[in-house]
């Protein structure tokens, strides 16, 4: 009996090789009509990325058990708090990046701008994904 565990490095190496050589999973998902709240077919690739951006930014993080703690955004908490406009403008780009970057299909999030009009916030972000660059507008 050994005091040092047998790490079985061969199994780990095989797993890492399989992960590195794995084919990307399809992104085919249901198309959500955010205006009517209905599912209206299917969507894939760039359109799936655009839908993910909207859905991730409109979903409150850690509020719904169906999603992991990585999914969603904390913008609603920021916008409802008593902080200065300068602080909000500084925090929104960071929060948008954190909401989107965890997805494996997204490489970078840049050019995040936010404009407030009354209770609404209009966010525009450019996302470099595995399917190419996407610029998406989201109203919260």
N-to-C span: 61 Å
| Radius of gyration using CA atoms only | 19 Å
Class in CATH? Alpha Beta
What is the CATH architecture annotation?
Answer: Roll
Physical arrangement of strands within the biggest beta sheet: 3-4-5
Structural class: alpha+beta
Number of structurally distinct domains = 1
Largest beta-sheet characterization: 3 strands, antiparallel
Regions with little confidence, pLDDT below 50 for 5+ residues: none
Topology-level CATH name: Nuclear Transport Factor 2, Chain: A
Beta-strand portion reads 25-35%
Spatial shape: globular
List the helices and strands in order.
HEEHHHEEE
| Count of helical regions | 4
What is the count of β-strands?
5
Outline:
The protein is of the alpha+beta class. The protein has helices at 9-20, 45-58, 75-79, 85-100, and strands spanning 29-33, 38-43, 106-117, 120-129, 132-139.
Protein model, in words:
It contains four helices and five strands. Strand 3 and strand 4 form a beta hairpin. By secondary structure, it is of the alpha+beta class. The longest helix is centred in the middle third of the chain and has 16 residues, at 85-100. It has a single domain (25-139), classed as Nuclear Transport Factor 2, Chain: A. The model has no long low-confidence stretch (mean pLDDT 86). The strands form two sheets. Strands 3-4-5 form a three-stranded antiparallel β-sheet, with helices on one face. A two-stranded antiparallel sheet has the order 1-2. It starts with 8 loop residues before the first helix and ends with a strand. It has helices at 9-20, 45-58, 75-79, 85-100; strands spanning 29-33, 38-43, 106-117, 120-129, 132-139.
